[in-house]
Specification:
Rieske Iron-sulfur Protein; 2 domains; four-stranded antiparallel β-sheet; 10 strands
């Protein structure tokens, strides 16, 4: 038995572009006006969302309890969501119901189009402006006004909380410094009990805050977000002290910022055998035995190290603040901070 592998080629006629099917708004003035009002409503929804975010930021009292934080975050998030989704859905609805939807075919040609084709393309753009309602006899003033207003004020839903969180100014030094000062004792999080060096055994990990943080009446959350630290004790022979940091640790005890340098998640998973710290959000991994340098993941910088010492009473204290801002990014970092990024981003 033989198999005939010959394949017969069949040519098909080009079916061409199907007949255009007009939409309701193309043939019915009432449907056209209805689509216009619907689009304007979506842009108006964006405006309302911006107002909710801005007014909610100033009207809702942000306390230190979880309920007030949840309420504040929910209102702010809802406002920003409406501000952005309203513009997006409005633009989509405008394009699908009111702008031209005729199928167009452009034949292949040499790289430079002919003068006639270039003039035709320019005319198509002009026709598109007319079809969209931005120009021509049907200017759709309602749509343009609502769209421009929504676009103009939508950034306020994000900018006002940002400026307000900095006290109404752009003083970036507020983000550079934390509560750690010379002599501040390292305390357990959350109870605030000071930690003695004798309490820290090899392989143990302490979640740490500055002593006195819990006594703050205002900005407790903001200060804690910057100052949280992980205190870890290694066998001194396993610790590779970084140049210039010979006196930053004590008998194998080191302290590093708990804030991941990728997007700011809390780094808290310590593997004693490898001395690796893992960020649970995106798996950035830092080597505690080698200056908390990045050994895996998207983070680009080592965790900032807090210089520590032991006072006369045996308590672990900070020598001073971090020598660089904590967190994922900053506009005035020390030179050389990206050296690790060059090593891992190859």
């Amino acid at each position: 038995m033989s198999i005939d592998n010959h394949t017969e080629h069949v040519e098909f006629e080009d079916p061409g572009v199907p007949d255009h099917r007009p939409r309701k708004a193309d043939v019915d003035d009432k449907a056209d006006k209805r689509a216009e009002r619907q689009t304007a409503f979506l842009f108006g929804l964006s405006i309302v969302g911006t107002l909710i975010a801005v007014v909610g930021y100033f009207a809702i009292d942000l306390g230190e309890d979880v309920e007030s934080i949840q309420r504040f975050t929910m209102v702010l998030g809802l406002g920003i969501f409406l501000a952005m989704i309203g513009i997006g859905l409005g633009a989509i609805h405008w394009a699908k119901t009111l702008m031209r939807d005729h199928e167009m075919v452009e034949e292949r040609h040499e790289m430079r189009s002919s003068d006639e084709a270039r003039e035709g393309a320019i005319q198509d753009l002009k026709d598109g402006v007319v079809d969209s309602g931005l120009g021509g006899p049907k200017r759709r003033t309602l749509l343009k006004g609502s769209l421009i207003t929504a676009l103009a004020i939508a950034p306020l839903s994000v900018l006002v909380p940002q400026i307000g969180s900095m006290g109404g100014d752009w003083n970036v030094s507020k983000f550079r410094h934390t509560m750690w000062t010379a002599g501040t004792r390292l305390a357990r999080d959350p109870d605030g009990t000071p930690i003695k060096a004798s309490d820290v055994t090899i392989g143990s990990v302490f979640h740490v805050i500055p002593e006195g943080l819990n006594d703050l009446e205002h900005h407790l959350i903001e200060e804690k977000a910057k100052a949280v630290v992980l205190l870890i004790r290694l066998d001194p022979k396993d610790l590779n002290v970084q140049p210039g940091r010979e006196d930053w640790s004590f008998d194998g005890i080191v302290a590093y910022s708990k804030i991941c340098t990728h997007v700011g998640c809390p780094v808290a998973l310590y593997e004693q055998q490898t001395h690796h710290l893992l960020c649970p959000c995106h798996q950035s991994t830092f080597d505690v035995a080698n200056g908390a340098k990045v050994v895996f993941g998207p983070a680009k910088r080592p965790l900032p190290q807090l210089p520590i010492a032991v006072d006369d009473d045996g308590y672990i204290v900070a020598q001073r603040d971090f020598e660089e801002p904590v967190g994922p990014s900053f506009w005035e970092r020390l030179q050389g901070d990206d050296s690790t990024a060059e090593e891992v981003d190859h």
